Predict the 3D structure of the following.
Amino acid sequence: MNPLAELKGCKTTSTSIEPPMGMGYEDWRIVLLRVRQLGDAFRWWYGQLVLFGEAHYGEIAAQAVSETGLDEETIMRYRTVAERIDERIRIRELSWSHHREVAYTPNLTMEDRQEWLVRAYKNAWTVRELKEELELEGLRNHKAKSAHAEECGICHRSHWSQITITVCQSCYENVFKR
């Protein structure tokens, strides 16, 4: 089902959505769920468009991608999930974030990824529960440790330029390293 077709008469712009006066609860609920699907769809579409651009236009595609204003980390996350989770194994009832957890689990084959997505669907796992199950199976480890920039002995300021910021592949939080 196309989520765009299920907005039940709402007026939309790029920055707002206005439900019609008198909209019933059930129609409102359907629109709410469709909007969540659109958020997930955007991530899939964006990732697939980046992959298409790389395959068909090479380096010049990077210029167009940078014009979107999304940060590189976000772009790479969308791209990676779209690349690692084949269209044929995606489960529309699961959020994009469920798929992200499986995509960022190391050493899984496409069949393994499909199995984990099916398990998440059948067990109605939240994203957190899926992550916990992956950790229980020893497939994911949460090893992120945060550190802070040290105070300079001369000017007594923190020098963040000397810190490398990476993203923990388990919790997606920034991790600071010297």
Observations:
- The first strand starts at residue 11 and ends at 12.
- Residues 25-57 form the longest helix (33 residues).
